[in-house]
Amino acid sequence: MERSLISLRGTAAGAGDLAGRLVFVLGILASVVLSAVSGGVALAFSAFILPALHAMPDPEAVEVMQQATREVPASFVLVLLGTAVSPAVLVAADVIRRGWRACPWLAIGTVAYALGVVGATLGGTMPLNEWLHTLDSATLHSDAWLGYATAWGGFNNVRILGAAVASALLTIAMLRR
To answer: pTM of the entire structure?
Structure first.
């Protein structure tokens, strides 16, 4: 039978357990926020940046996207990958402490983020960006930009969905603690 937070107050063991649970919940909260931030960045790109690029002549759009993908800040990579690692560490810690059945929402949320956001980035948008850097905007065939932008937008939408699902599942995990 699981003890409630209220029954843990007032004892030395209870205080340590309460502190551990608080750290765990704050870790999940950080993962929820970072997942939502990742999804928000992807949503902003699909909602504002891609339509603006589609309104430009293809050679200019290619040059802008080449520049944008060449200058990816380290903070973006840290949020993207850190958001996958932090809940995975929490899952491992909870499995060690309480067994496999302890954290299904946290585990599924972690997988949703890893596949939806990190997977779509490493397996989709990054290879497309590498291909885009091989293009010369001066000799660009019009179908090249359209094909790239369509595929890139599709992978970006997978990232939005993955981040939203992960945020929801991680929130459920947090509330169930």
So the answer is: 0.83
Q: What is the pLDDT of residues 85-108, one digit of tens each?
A: 888 888 888 888 777 666 889 899
Count of beta carbons in the 10 Å neighbourhood of residue 12: 7
Side-chain half-sphere exposure of 79, counting CA atoms within 13 A = 17
Measured distance CA(145)–CA(96) in Å, rounded = 49
Q: Flag whether 3 is in a domain.
A: no
Within-domain flag for 83: yes
Q: Taking phi first (over 0 means left), then psi (-120 to 50 degrees means alpha), and beta for anything else, what does residue 6 get?
A: alpha
Nearest to 116 by CA among 104, 108, 105, 128: 108
Please give the residue range of the domain that contains residue 135: 9-175
Q: Is residue 4 part of a domain?
A: no
Q: Which residue, 31, 128, 151, 45, is CA-closest to 80?
A: 31
Q: How many domains does the chain have?
A: 1
